[in-house]
Amino acid sequence: MKLIRTQDAVGHVLCHDMTQIIVGVTKDARFRKGHIVREEDIPVLLSMGKEYLYVWEKQEGMLHEDEAAEILCDAAQNDHMQRSEVKEGKIELKATSEGLLQVDVERLMRINSLGEVMIATRRNFSRVKAGDKLAGMRVIPLVIDAEKMHKVAAIAGPSNPLLSIRPYLIRRCTILVTGNEVKKGIIEDSFSQIVERKLSELGVTVSAKILTGDDEAYISACIRQAVADGAEMVLCTGGMSVDPDDRTPKAIRDSGARIVSYGAPVLPGAMFLVSYLGDVPVLGLPGCVMYAQRTIFDVLLPRFVAKVPVTARDIASLGNGGLCLQCEPCTFPTCGFGGGGL
């Protein structure tokens, strides 16, 4: 840094905060470190008693924090995102549409491990709406080696930002309500009503609802027929435990669906079943979906609706953060439940 006359400082970058004191009104930083001095700032600085200023001296191979923040922003920003103006070396990103936020966790880790740079994001697979804050980024020092920022750009690649918002694509769903007691009218179906409410949160409507009873062959046939009729997702409610009269897992398997996982390290939701018939998700919903406020179904549903494939590894990773604390009031999805996904 170098010391120059305040009158000569226009266009230069301040190396430290400048505090303005107005008795009875304010005592705060009037100009922050990294501020680029403008013509209109000169009278204010002089009124603060600043006749000389320490400013950043441009060095070959070094970048100012604002320049470096732009590189971090380019590494993170994708479609359906809006960036803020750079302020004190920091840029924030907000969503411009609803969808599922995907974060390339591995590359984010590589960038944050370089040192002197940081990108902080919402959790991977967060549900977001237009206006939601997605990420903030900055470099730590006032100036940074340009070579380090070249490494950031190389990790991000020329057209593959770390963040993306996947729109919700599935709009129609079929629900198969299992249980002979429901089919025979002994008890009223309340399960599907709860499921419909959760689907509506993501804009999904139920195009068909079938009371299948516990006939495995009939459940399997209904799954196949639903997919043939154009269902984009099939949900089977209940019958997911290991009791002898719980037939849903076998019925799903017999339908020809490829089982990804039967069981998950999540409570509530340990008996959740994920499968695909072709590219159509066929899910077995355990009874906890009916009585617990939030379950594994709430955690994974946005991924299915956005047509993001769910793997056995994805499900296994949910154990870290997979215990719902059943808080009152419930703050899902802004809590830590389900936060361990990759």
Write the SSE topology.
Elements: E1 2-5, E2 18-22, E3 26-31, H1 41-47, E4 52-55, E5 62-64, H2 65-76, E6 81-83, E7 90-95, E8 99-103, H3 105-112, E9 117-121, E10 126-128, E11 133-139, E12 143-145, H4 146-156, E13 163-166, E14 172-178, H5 180-183, H6 191-200, E15 205-213, H7 216-228, E16 234-237, H8 248-254, E17 258-262, E18 273-277, E19 280-285, H9 288-291, H10 296-305, H11 312-317
Parallel strand pairs: 14-15, 14-16, 16-19
Antiparallel strand pairs: 1-4, 2-3, 5-12, 6-7, 7-11, 8-10, 8-13, 9-11, 17-18, 18-19
Helix pairs in contact: 2-4, 7-8
Number of helices: 11
Fourth-level CATH superfamily of the largest domain: MoaB/Mog-like domain
Q: CATH first level of the largest domain: which class?
A: Alpha Beta
Shape: elongated
How many discrete structural domains?
A: 3
Query: What is the CA–CA distance across the termini?
Result: 43 Å
Averaging pLDDT over every residue, what do you get? 92
Q: Provide the low-confidence segments as ranges.
A: none
Sequence of strands across the biggest β-sheet: 15-14-16-19-18-17
The proportion of residues forming helix, as a percent range, comes to: 25-40%
Q: Return Rg in Å.
A: 27 Å
Q: Main β-sheet: number of strands, strand sense, barrel status?
A: 6 strands, mixed
Strand content: 25-35%
Decide which structural class fits the backbone: alpha+beta
Tally of DSSP β-strands: 19
CATH topology of the largest domain: Molybdenum Cofactor Biosythetic Enzyme, Chain A
Order of helices and strands: EEEHEEHEEEHEEEEHEEHHEHEHEEEHHH
Oligomeric form: single chain
Task: Please identify, by name, the CATH architecture of the largest domain.
Answer: 3-Layer(aba) Sandwich
